[in-house]
Design goal:
By secondary structure, the protein is mostly helical. The protein has five helices and two strands, in the order ααααββα. The chain has one domain. Strand 1 (79-83) and strand 2 (86-90) form a beta hairpin. Helix 3 (53-68) runs antiparallel to helix 5 (92-115).
Length: 136
């Protein structure tokens, strides 16, 4: 499996790597080029192609990294203490996971904001000034 990154950002794959912080390739990449390609293809199938594609795919890639837990293990795990209904997590792994989930949230917000259609400019008077004909 290949693990490449071009800082010229010529492809959505490179954008996904940049947005997810997975640019230390090939030594420490979290997702292969093939995995990112599959994530982008699924994102395009669900949302269509547009300027939002890289952000939607980046959010999905971050969710996949969070699910695997590889990042947490790489930075030292999570130490937790549970008292009743309260659980306190600490350690480098907990901090890394929180930052990862925050980044995923930002990518989803950016994706959604770019997908929203902008309202066309309109005028209630139709561009003409004067009395309304249907008002009497």
């Amino acid at each position: 499996m290949a693990c490449t990154y071009d800082d010229a950002l010529t492809t959505n794959k490179d954008w996904v790597r940049l947005l997810t912080g997975d640019t230390d390739v090939p030594a420490n990449c979290r997702l292969s080029d093939e995995e990112i390609g599959a994530i982008i293809a699924e994102s395009v199938a669900l949302n269509g192609t547009g300027k939002w594609t890289k952000y939607c795919a980046a959010a999905d890639a971050l969710a996949l990294v969070a699910q695997t837990g590889a990042l947490v293990e790489a930075v030292g795990g999570v130490r937790s203490k549970r008292v009743g209904r309260v659980t306190i997590e600490r350690g480098a792994g907990a901090i890394a996971m929180k930052e990862l989930l925050e980044r995923e949230k930002r990518m989803r917000v950016k994706c959604a904001s770019l997908m929203l259609r902008k309202p066309a400019a309109f005028s209630t008077l139709g561009g003409r000034r004067g009395k309304c004909k249907s008002c009497g």
